Amino acid sequence: MSLSRILDGKVCIVVGASSPKGIGDATVRMLLDHGAKVVAAGIVMNDDIIARLLSGCTDSEIPRSNIDGQICDITDFGQCQALMEAVVDKFGKVDCLVNCAGIVEGCAFSEISSDKFDRMTNVNLKGTFNLCKAALQVFERQGHGNIVNLSSLAAQRGGGLAGGAHYAASKGGVISLTRSIAREYGPMNIRANIICPAMIDTEMLDGFSAKRQNEIVESIPLRRVGLPSEVAGTCLFLASDLSGFITGATIDVNGGAHIH
């Protein structure tokens, strides 16, 4: 099999694909370029976003039929179930769920209200739970499946950059949740892995001054921020059969900012 087509025959769902600067956007294009049929899902999704995703692919010959868009509020389990069933109805199966959806907020611990904490965990942790539970229902029927959840460096080191303690806690929960899925569902031929990005050139960095960004870059061994495509490449690897014996793993994509 050519490495340029390592996802031929695979059906992948990428959730959190609405932002043009986001990791989800880059992941949709990466998976399409490598042969997958992809459903791009998000709280906002329309034909304009689908056209943008297709136009950004390296392979200009990808047919429109290889991509579909679905609106999904991941805080609503019913919508997550509907997403999975819509993909099965259209493509016949789901091979991989890549969950890039999430929110971030930076503030001091003392400024985190109950409402802020609930909103953060409702999207980042409960939303991940909802998506995984809905996907696992399909995977169990099929006898196979693959989950890739995005967490964060903040979960590993206790915040410290863009997100507050509630963000770090919600993303820490994603790590534990994914590892639990890997352990419980491994015997059913279902894999689950985590990616922990840090300082990726997305909208998350827009709130940093140039001076602050330079200070952070100086602390990164590779001396630069990461590209969304570099996280997408890790999603591609985990979505493919090249990673077939990897489950319950946490993959760092951080330029060496956290070596442990």
From TrEMBL:
Tree of life domain: Bacteria
Xref: SUPFAM superfamilies: NAD(P)-binding Rossmann-fold domains
InterPro entries found in the cross-reference section: NAD(P)-bd_dom_sf, Sc_DH/Rdtase_CS, SDR_fam
Keywords linked to the UniProt accession: Oxidoreductase
Keyword Transit peptide: no
Example GO molecular function: oxidoreductase activity
Pfam families (alphabetical): adh_short_C2
Family of this protein: Belongs to the short-chain dehydrogenases/reductases (SDR) family.
Protein name as it appears in the record: SDR family oxidoreductase
